[in-house]
Amino acid sequence: MKDSLRDLNITELSTMEEDSGLDIMYLNKHRHSSSTSSSAPERENDGFNKRKLRITMQDYPRKSGQILSGQYGINLLLLGFAFMLGVSYHGHSIKEKHLVSYITTLMLMQLLWMLWYIVRKDRQKHALPEKDAHAGTSWLRGGLTILAMLSLIMDAFRIGKYVGYKACLSSALVVYPVVHAIHTISQVYFLWFHIKDVIKTFETFERFGVIHAVFTNLLLWCSGAMTESQNVLDAHKKRLSALGFMNYTYESHEPYCNCTTKACSMFSNSLYYLYPFNIEYHIIVSAMLFVMWKNIGRTIEHHQHHIKKKPVAKTAGLVAGPILGFVALAGTIGVLVVYLIQVEATLETRTWAIHMFYQHGIVLMGSMFIASTLGLIIYRTDSWPQDSSKNPSRQLDKELLCGSAIGSWIMSWCGVVAAVASHSEPSYRWTNLAYSLLLVLEKYFQNLFIVESLYLKQEDEEEGSAREVEEGVERSGEAGMSSSRIFSVTSSSTQVPPYDGIINQAFVTQEKMCISLDGSQVKNSHLYQYQCQTPQDSPPLPAVSRTAAALNRKRQILRNIAVFLVLCNSALWLLPAFGCRPQYDNGLEQETFGFAIWTMVLNFAMPLNLFYRMHSVASLFEVFCHV
Amino acid sequence: MKDSLRDLNITELSTMEEDSGLDIMYLNKHRHSSSTSSSAPERENDGFNKRKLRITMQDYPRKSGQILSGQYGINLLLLGFAFMLGVSYHGHSIKEKHLVSYITTLMLMQLLWMLWYIVRKDRQKHALPEKDAHAGTSWLRGGLTILAMLSLIMDAFRIGKYVGYKACLSSALVVYPVVHAIHTISQVYFLWFHIKDVIKTFETFERFGVIHAVFTNLLLWCSGAMTESQNVLDAHKKRLSALGFMNYTYESHEPYCNCTTKACSMFSNSLYYLYPFNIEYHIIVSAMLFVMWKNIGRTIEHHQHHIKKKPVAKTAGLVAGPILGFVALAGTIGVLVVYLIQVEATLETRTWAIHMFYQHGIVLMGSMFIASTLGLIIYRTDSWPQDSSKNPSRQLDKELLCGSAIGSWIMSWCGVVAAVASHSEPSYRWTNLAYSLLLVLEKYFQNLFIVESLYLKQEDEEEGSAREVEEGVERSGEAGMSSSRIFSVTSSSTQVPPYDGIINQAFVTQEKMCISLDGSQVKNSHLYQYQCQTPQDSPPLPAVSRTAAALNRKRQILRNIAVFLVLCNSALWLLPAFGCRPQYDNGLEQETFGFAIWTMVLNFAMPLNLFYRMHSVASLFEVFCHV
Q1: Given this model, what pLDDT does residue A300 score?
Q2: Looking at chain A, which residue has its C-alpha nearest residue B510?
Q3: Which long-range contacts (C-beta less than 8 Å, at least 24 apart) are formed by B114-120?
Q4: Which among A472, A449, A486, A483 has a CA at the least distance from the CA of A619?
Q5: Which end of chain B is more exposed for a tag (fewer CB within 10 A), N or C?
């Protein structure tokens, strides 16, 4: 008993020290006096103090490690950004080959680090690595693999294009796709087998490695987004000059020599359609790696889910959501095709196409707004169990959703201002206004819906805890239970509380405290029993099953909403990703803000908007699995 | 005894529920069974459950409140940003009066909210409000008051300018400075008396109020920064055309009518020099209000410092830092004056002035880099006690430092790229390169130094805890101490642990646990005494005083470094704030990136850089008080 209590207290103190900044040095300084005043054995104290010292030494570089590596990463990106600015000027000093060489160097450095990491991990196979269950779900990695494959095709096309224009292109432009392909393959391997790792050794060095990977991918995203914006702008200018709107001499960004193969134009055109996937691949990878970076040195509880997930139950009752969603998706693809054809034809069809786009958008935004609001109302009608344990993935999801929504919001507000202030009177003036306002509302409520859903306690967890409750009641009479419980917190025992992934400090402390009180036979035991057993030791009530059925119906509705929103957001990703960007074509904003400023706004906002849609699809899919 | 134990546990559970996501609904659902199985009095359970229910109801809107209000604030800013873009285009649709009217409306809304808040607080004077000791230190508020006064002078000048041009200016342009003056006065009052408040009532509404204030000030900052950039750009263009560099027809942004008073040009010119202060005022206010927003609904321990701060000891040994700092400041002011005169004279003096600027910069950056590194080495040579308790002010300080450094870093990296890639060969080409690289390093290490210093445990706290230790030993024999200790955690008793400001969850739990174990006469008491008394019950050792003297010397060096860096950063704020911006004049970056892109970069980076310097001055002053 005494031993188990000592163990409990040491674990407790050390976790406290790590997470909440108890002054460890202070403890060390004054320990002698307490050991003389108390009659505790010296040996015990020594072990205790060694443990504390080790934590102190580890704690210091960790704190600095974050800011050291974070600043390094930012500067890596900013140097790349400076190159990008130089390239986008099309001046004499900075050429594409300089940017590409810089990115290639970064990718090679990342490759070296990943190799080192993987080899080292393979050697330590006997040691059970700590994992964060929340990082990089398997469906996310699956989706990424598809995007990575499309990126590989893109690399192949790039190499093909280089072969055609070999005479006048720098060799950096063929090294880049080759290194990028190797980088993509190794990175996908890394994501599959190591993204959940919680790094505990060489922390400062690993921080640099991971943040290097994060910012390399972020730079690849920036550079891809810049190239794509350039492509779209060129297409827009070509269209305008074809319609006779502007006196525009088309500057070709193609190389200044003849293609030696027949496939050059095919490669160039296909690249245009593959860019969106490549861009999304890099931004999602960098978000996942960022979570890995945040996890370095964290205290993670590794335990397995004992309750198998039931995918069958998830799809039951899924009717309205998928049907409406697919209708929206099909309609959007129709609109996309019609828009792309009509906007290039005549001035009249152009106006009509833009008008159609806004009307379609209003219907879509309206229904998405209604769906999100319905979900929020459902959350308000009932008291849903909430899970607010620490979870860096979820925190990042939330911040990324609100952060990337800024792109779309700034476009919307510019649209609102332009529609109200405009002196011209195109037919789509007021539909543009309505569309912009609905877009703001839709994002506002969709974000709210996603965030509230992610903070919901998972159905599995509830069932799991209910099952554990029953088990707990059966075993409640057994002796010695308290001591086995003590170890269930620190080691990965079979009986674990219903929170998963990460240690919940307060919960752990509470549980331990109850046990130590039990173990030392405290008086007023009825009170303690009440306090301690509430989370685990009460059998389900008969009334609960009725409310459970109602809850289940509500969960079905929520799942339908999530599926509908997934499909709508995919549709809204498709539109701008494949060139349907009326923000360029409608002329209202251009009149109010001028071509230069408006293009600058779009170059900033469009990539963010695309990322928002992709990210909200991923988050909503998680909501679907979660509810 | 029983009562006190119950109190302890209720407090404990409720804080756990609030902060760490224990499943409260789950507790509610299953409470009946536990009350039937245990023999506890029903009355006690009822009170307990009511408390839990209340927490559930409060907890839900709080979670959503953050994201609801945060999104509202972002959209407020983005709409203002859309207006700003329209104004900066100088088109026909959006005029300055539109932007100014929008900002005036926001300020009036903020005034209404502040009035409501102050009146309500005054009525509840009997209730002791909770305060966050870390938010808005008095010297920060003092500094802000000076900035606010300069803003008031600026408002007076604006009104004066309006009077002169009354014939051709919109009345919105006189309403704005009047409302701004009222807004400034009320806001300073609010900051003095309410910025430390921890809001616990009407949380969702208050969140909207505070975030509205945050984003109103942020918008005022953005709008001020935009106007200032415009001024600097105009001055630059005027200079260039005077030197015969460009064929530039000076577009006046002055009103198109004659001034009816004699003071118009005086007002216009003075406004130019007052802008920097006004801009800094708004950004610092918005950072302070943001901390207030983060504090809404937090659990804060209110206790007073019993140990008076000794300002005398702080200034002892302060020689090298201030002297070197004032030399740097005086030198910088000299450089500023010479630069402003020489850059407008002839082409030759212009080149010479830029060269001088970079040489001065290299010396300054080099010494700041050495000072920061010295500080970091001192931290590495000894194990300094660290304080990592939760503290939103400090967290925000850290993020703002790294975030605003981006502005300066992007300029530096562009400078590096331009210096390397340039085809022209001005005399300052390589000094520009060295200056840019040193700037990156200086910010990198200065940030590291500031952040590590802020995470240091304060000297006062250490002394305070040592004194408390002695008091604790004297009283340790008294009976009934345990129960008095219990209340010292929840009420503001005289005896408090050495962490200040915010409840340290783990610490509190630990202390409570020890007491409850004492109270219930546990066996193995020597072990518990050791565990519980380590932080408090050991008298200082004789050896400590020797190391304390060494530590004190090191603290003196650190204080000198902090003062030196404060003065250097002030100097580096002065330079760009008063028009010494060689980034416009040197021509290297303009050659590499083009005028449009480079101006865009400067418009983004310059305000951030100014904010960085001001913010690092504030942070370093805090470091000085802290060490």
Answers
A1: 66
A2: A13
A3: B114/B186, B114/B187, B114/B190, B114/B209, B114/B213, B115/B186, B116/B209, B117/B190, B117/B194, B117/B206, B117/B209, B118/B189, B118/B190, B118/B193, B118/B194
A4: A449
A5: N
Question: Which of B211-220, B264-273, B413-422, B500-509 bottoms out in mean pLDDT, i.e. has the lowest?
Answer: B500-509
Tell me the two tokens of residue B322. 């201030």
CB B106 within 8 A of CB B218: no
Backbone angles phi, psi at A461, to 5 degrees: -60, -40
For residue B197, the SS3 value is strand
Max distance between CA atoms of chain A, in angstroms, equals: 95
Q: What is the mean pLDDT of chain A?
A: 76
* Predicted pLDDT of residue B217: 96
Q: What is the SS3 string spanning B349-406?
A: HHHHHHHHHHHHHHHHHHHHHHHHHHHHHHHHHCCCCECCCCCHHHHHHHHHHHHHHH
Per-residue model confidence as pLDDT tens digits over B408-465: 999 999 999 999 998 888 889 999 999 999 999 999 999 999 998 888 876 555 544 4
Query: Mutate which of B388, B446, B551 to test chain A, going by most A C-beta atoms within 10 A?
Result: B388
Give strand pairing partners of B453.
none
Q: How many CB atoms lie within 10 A of CB A595?
A: 12
Q: Give A92's pLDDT tier (boundaries 50, 70, 90).
A: confident
**Minimum Cα–Cα distance from A402: chain B residue:** B71
Nearest CB to A78; choose among B30, B64, B409: B409
Determine the Cα–Cα distance for residues A298 and A12; give it in Å rounded to an integer: 16
The share of chain A scoring above pLDDT 90, in percent, equals: 38
Provide the pLDDT for residue A587.
86
Stretch among A579-593, B31-45, B374-388, B391-405 having the lowest mean pLDDT: B31-45
A63 vs B388: CB contact, 8 Å cut-off? yes
Write the CA distances from A322 to A547, A554, A564, A622, B244, integer angstroms.
26, 17, 6, 16, 68
Query: What whole-number distance in Å separates Cα of residue B289 and Cα of residue B208?
Result: 12
* CA of B251 vs chain A CAs: smallest distance (Å): 17
Q: Is residue B496 scored above 70 in pLDDT?
A: no
Kindly tell me the sign of the dihedral angle through the C-alpha atoms of A228, A234, A236, A242. negative
CB atoms A93 and B385 under 8 Å: no
Our measurement of the distance from residue A67's CA atom to the centroid of its chain's CA atoms, rounded to an integer in Å, reads 21
Lowest mean pLDDT among B108-122, B152-166, B390-404: B390-404
Distant-in-sequence, close-in-space partners of B341: CB < 8 Å, separation ≥ 6 = none
CB spacing of B45 vs A79 below 8 angstroms = no
* Residue B532: pLDDT over 50: no
Q: Which residues are CB-neighbours of B139 under 8 A, at least 6 positions away?
A: B621, B625
Q: Which residue of A has its CA nearest to B534?
A: A27
Q: Residue B581 is which amino acid? A: R
Alpha-carbon gap, residue B518 to A531, rounded angstroms: 19
Question: What is the C-alpha to C-alpha distance for residues A86 and A106, in angstroms, rounded to an integer?
Answer: 18
Report residue A519 as tokens: 């173990």
The tens digit of pLDDT for each residue in B349-400 reads: 889 999 999 999 999 999 999 999 999 998 888 777 777 777 878 888 888 9
Residues of B in contact with A25 (CB under 8 A): 383-386
Q: Which of A383, A506, A524, A356 is nearest to A452 (CA)?
A: A383
The residues facing A456 across adjacent strands are: A386
Residue A305 pLDDT > 70, yes or no? no
In terms of Cα–Cα distance, which of A528, A352, A426 is closest to B519?
A: A528
Whether residues B78 and A530 touch (CB distance < 8 A) is answered with no
Percent residues over pLDDT 90 in chain B: 37
Considering just the CA atoms, what is the radius of gyration of chain B in Å?
29
